[in-house]
Amino acid sequence: MRRRDVRGRRLGILVAWLVALALLGAIVATHLKVGTDLRSFMPAPTTPDQKLLMDQVGEGPGSRLLLVAIDGGDDATKAALSRGLATALRKDDAFTQVVNGDFDLGMLDTSLLPYRFLLSPTLDTGALDETYLADELQQRLDDLGSPAATLLKGLLPRDPTLETLKLAEHWTPARSPEVREGVWFSSQGEALLLAQTRGAGFDPGAQDDAIGRLRAAFAALPESKGSHLTISGPGYFTVMVNAQTRDQADWIGRISTIGFVVLMLVAYRSIGSLLLGALPVATGALVGIVALTLGFTEVHGITLAFGFTLLGVAQEYPIRLLSHRRAGESAVAAVRGLWPLLLTAIASACIAYLAFYASGVGGLKQLAVFTIAGLLAAGFSTRYVLPYVLPETARDVAGMPWLAAFRNWLDALPRPRWLPLPIVAAVLAMLFFAPGPFWQNDLSALTPLPRDLLMKDAQLRGELGAPDVRYLLIVQAPDADGVLKASAALEPRLREQVAKKHLDGFELASIYLPDLATQRARQAKLPDRAALDAMLDTALEGMPFRKDLFAPFVDDVETARTAPPLTPEVFSRSPLGQRLAAMLAQRDDHWVGLSTLSGVRDASAVAAAVAGSGVDARLLDLKEASESLVAEYRTRILHAVLAATALLFVAITLALRSIRRAWHVLAPMTLATFLVLAVERALGIPISLFHLVALILAAGLGLHYALFFERDTGDPAEQRRTLHATVVCVIAALLVFGMLAWSSIPVLRAIGLTVALGVGFHFCLSILMAPHADQDRLR
Amino acid sequence: MRVLDKPLIVSGELGWLGEDRLERRVDTPTKEVSTIADGEVTQQREGKKPRTFSLTRAPQLKVLLDSFVALLAGDPSRLSESFDVTLGRDADRWALTLTPRDARIAKQIARIQVYGTGTLARCMRMDEADGDMSIDLLGELATKMPAEPTREGLIAQCGGAM
User: Fold this and answer.
1) Which residues of chain B neighbour A151 with C-beta distances below 8 Å?
2) Of A57, A224, A503, A661, which cross-links A656 as Cys (Cβ 3.0–4.6 Å)?
């Protein structure tokens, strides 16, 4: 009857636990919002250059451009597809601008048409007088008799001087691809398009959506069956990397889970153990996510992905419990004996992950909260709930035959006291003679994108004259008009640089919208209605133009003469104005003009020209700024790690109450960490932030091994159980991280390799440097 | 033309360079040479730099090219590819009416008519959808352009409507 009671109680607790997990799951499902902006994993910028970098990398004009190439089929088909795609995308509000060489006469918004006199530079050098009008009208007459008549007929009454055409030429980039069949074609014969998305470049969700619509629009075109679409650009790369990372994480997760299941079955020969052992880990995961949902408005996708790996540490707690059960001992008693050590292990792991919280990076803070909450939940549920649901009796692992043999073999290994010395020597030698740079500063080396994709992007970018993503021209002034004035001052210098072939092209805000003073100067040169009428009458003498044909023209001039000058706000309401809006930004108390450059060949010459122009402008090298950001970030993390390590030393010493014992735990751990570092350097791998993160994780695991091996119980059976538990943990960790080490994505590979090596070294060193093996042998 | 209150008179030479190439040389009022080749129009005006644009943006020219080449090459199948053809006869005079089949072109060019007598084509008349009309007097008629032409006068000169 007692057994049935106990079994009933066990079942009851188990059911209650499952229900609690289900509730947590429900909370997560309803409240979890996953974010995708990669910038939350970057440190907060401190210098103005870094701030600009963060803005630009995510939302700058260059980062939102998608380069599209169409091939397959003959020229006419490709051109038709290009036109069809452009029309479809212009109607789609996911795209702010689509250009494909299809010269758009209507570039200037019709409501802004009178302003053409203020925007065009014609009035700077000439006057709107009789001779000018007569000359222009004669030319138009000649045009009407020529094949170009159809192009001009509609425009003639309103714009006989063809200012709109002059403006369009002014705004067309200097370097454009060849035009065939009316659209752009590359030198390889593909039809080319440029599309600017509304969503930021660093937001994989928005970019994915835009790219999806692009593909759908293409597939919907009637002749698209035989043709092929190639897309390139920063947004596309972001989406690809995201998908690749998710894919790999998925199949790695699957293989690890299967391996884990097999491992548990082999180790414990009981399905019950496997299932029940999974419960604390599941609890940890769910509690971690709930903590995130409560603490942050949006949980980052990367946090969830990395968080689960870090939670791999938590699987240790139930494994320790399962391995340490003695024959005839209840789980509750076993866990009570184990608890002090387990608690030390949990506490030290939490301290290590506090280093992430201290780094000040949004995404890493989330990671810290997730892991600490998860570990605490897993640990405490192992202590207080798991023992009550485990079966009363269990197989004592100390009785496994291979285990005894293994333990004896390990005990027989020589364990010289002087072991640390050669290891330290080896570490120093490897670090000293390692090839390559120590730190990985170049974030682009961490890209998992295949070489040919990047080359294709470079080729398309060169042909389209699309701006370089690396360089930005920054102009600063107290207000928007000041920025425009300064940009205008820069223009002649930049044209000089283009002439000297240091630069292919540039885009300045002042090209689209001149500053207020210039506009007013041009306005002053416009004749009033009466004068214009008189001039027109004289000029039209002898010409066959219909009377009053040019009334709209006279109206336009009058409107332009009296209207207030165009400001950026009014201008940005037009489609062309979007381009300008991307180039002018307000920052705190001043305005910044961001101009893109294309085909930069001699950056230092351009930078010197800009610096010497006398206005507040400079050339920003985004690559340099990002590298400085990475370096600063790393320093902050290193400080946090050192602080955590110091705290850890203190905590372990206090817990073990003896410096000698603390030494036996901390020495192997420190040595193993440096050994991993040295081996990776000897392999020529530069150390990046992700390696540092992984080293912390490996140290966390290693600490547990050392703590348990250090424990002096004097009971050989107990020591065999410790060995069993540790071996199972090591294999489990190697399963997850070893798999990651094979990934094609540099970030995952860095983490996998480091932790796998770390786990291996920690295990070996903990055994070799454990204190009481001698006593065992003496027994 | 709607934009003019007097007709615009242009004279010069129109030459077929074989296949799909046409050269239009204008002597008065301004010297200008336009060449149509490889789907592009190159316009060269005296004292100005040459301007090039695609043939697809000047449907007038495309139609001109198609009809001219087909007529001069004596290729009826090519003609009926791009146009609906009707022939009107009155004794020695004939009038060939070509209506473009392509809807996009038809929006700008309503129809072309070629008037002729015997074996010679005398005039070519192009009616644009917006009401503008151009009449080319060909061959020996070209020298007989009146100083103040009117639509009706020119049509009569061509041999009359039918």
Assistant:
1) 53, 57-58
2) A661
What is the complex's ipTM, to 2 decimals? 0.73
Neighbouring C-beta atoms of residue A460, cutoff 10 Å: 23
Q: Which residue of B has its CA nearest to A542?
A: B6
Q: What percent of chain A has pLDDT over 90?
A: 4
Residue A358 CA to residue A345 CA, distance in Å, equals 21
Backbone angles phi, psi at A89, to 5 degrees: -70, -30
Cα B142 to the center of its chain, rounded Å: 13
Residues A73, A221: contact at Cβ < 8 Å? no
Q: Is the C-alpha dihedral spanning A98, A104, A108, A110 positive or negative? A: negative
CB spacing of A149 vs B60 below 8 angstroms: yes
Question: A182 with A70: CB under 8 angstroms?
Answer: no
In 3D space, the residue among A304, A288, A313 whose CA is nearest the CA of residue A755 turns out to be A313
Residue A395 burial by CB count (10 A; 0-12/13-18/19+): exposed, middle or buried?
Answer: middle
Q: Which of A147, A179, A549 sits opposite B41 (nearest CB)?
A: A147
DSSP per residue over A168-212, as a string?
Answer: HHHHS-SS--EEETTEEE-TTS-EEEEEEESS-TT-HHHHHHHHH
Handedness of CA A739, A745, A746, A748 (dihedral sign): negative
Indicate the SS3 state at residue A773: helix
CA distances from B102 to B82, B84, B111, B113 (A): 7, 10, 12, 17
**671-710 of A, contacting B, C-beta below 8 A:** none
B97 in reach of chain A (CB within 8 A) = no
Nearest Cα to B56, choosing from A179, A617, A58? A179
Q: What are phi and psi of A592, to 5 degrees?
A: -125, 135
How far A143 CA sits from the closest chain B CA (Å)? 10
Is the whole model's pTM more than 0.80, yes or no?
no
Distance separating alpha carbons of residues A533 and A550, to the nearest angstrom: 10
Nearest CA in chain A to B2: A546
Write out the DSSP string of A151-165.
Answer: HHHTTTTT-TT-HHH
Interchain CB contact of A156 with B (< 8 Å): yes
Per the CB < 8 Å rule, is B29 touching A146? no
* Helix H or strand E encompassing B27: strand B22-28
- Strands A34-35 and A299-300 turn out to be parallel
Is the N-terminal amide bond of A280 cis, ω within 30° of 0?
no
Distance between CA atoms of residues A103 and A125, nearest Å: 27
Contacts of A552 (CB under 8 A, 6+ apart): A157, A158
Cα distance between residue A247 and residue A255, in whole Å: 13
Interchain CB contact of B89 with A (< 8 Å):
no
Interface of A with B in 238-297 (CB under 8 A): none
Between CA A411 and CA A777 the distance in angstroms is: 7
Round to whole Å and give the CA distance between A182 and A645.
66
Q: What is the DSSP letter of A399?
A: G
pLDDT in tens, A81-136: 898 898 898 888 888 878 887 655 446 667 778 888 888 888 888 788 888 888 88
Cα dist from A478 to A316, A481, A506, B127, whole Å = 59, 8, 23, 59
Size of interface A-B (CB pairs under 8 A): 68
| B26/A153 touch (CB, cutoff 8 Å), yes or no | no
Interface touch B3/A545, C-beta < 8 Å: yes
Q: Are A232 and A453 in contact (CB under 8 A)?
A: yes
What is the total residue count of chain B?
162
CB spacing of A147 vs B10 below 8 angstroms: no
